[in-house]
Design brief:
Layout: E1 3-12, E2 17-24, E3 30-37, E4 41-48, E5 51-59, E6 64-68, E7 71-73, H1 80-92, E8 94-96, E9 100-106, E10 112-113, E11 115-121, E12 124-126, E13 140-145, H2 146-154, H3 160-171
Parallel strand pairs: 3-10, 4-11
Antiparallel strand pairs: 1-2, 2-3, 4-5, 4-7, 5-6, 5-13, 8-12, 9-11
């Protein structure tokens, strides 16, 4: 097992930083590691009328329309549960009234340091929160049955974090 000797931030921008670390290997030798460090993320599986609420949204990084769940980053000083409520209000206009933590996933890959908090909610009140972001007007909200969601899951239609969260949810 590796032991971190030291680490320092070598790059920072608004959405991530890059950390350079020196580690000690099991044989006593040393090596360098680089990690992308991101703020915690949240996603909310919103279940209404026995259907899961998804978004269809254009994502500039992939240049494609993708299936998503209400999700986003945790702001400085914000609790993950409050970030989940905020994201649901911003993205689907519904405020979860019974939000509960399903699971926290650590480090989505060997080079990314981040926690992703997956929540589930089944009761809502309409309470949209306008972020002022013009692109959010173009999000399409879709309610899919569990069977439809499982089919898309089996077809590989979701990003890794959504896929992992949905697979965990459906095992419950």
């Amino acid at each position: 097992m590796e032991k971190t000797i030291s680490s320092k931030t070598v790059y920072q921008c608004p959405i991530f930083s890059v950390e350079e670390a020196e580690v000690e290997l099991p044989d006593g030798s040393r090596a360098k590691r680089w990690h992308v460090v991101r703020k915690d993320a949240v996603l909310v599986i919103c279940i209404k009328n026995q259907k899961i609420i998804f978004l269809r949204e254009f994502r500039s990084a992939s240049q494609s329309v993708e299936w998503r769940l209400p999700s986003g980053g945790v702001k400085d000083g914000e609790e993950p549960i409050n970030a989940g409520i905020r994201e649901a209000r911003e993205e689907i206009g519904l405020e979860p009234l019974d939000i509960r933590l399903l699971k926290t996933f650590n480090n989505p890959s060997s080079t990314i340091k981040q926690k992703a908090h997956c929540f589930v909610a089944t009761q809502f009140k309409e309470n949209p929160l306008d972020t002022g972001e013009p692109e959010e007007k173009f999000n399409e909200i879709k309610e899919l049955s569990f069977e439809e969601a499982k089919k898309l899951l089996d077809e590989g239609q979701f990003s890794a974090s959504i896929e992992r969260s949905l697979r965990f949810f459906f095992k419950q």
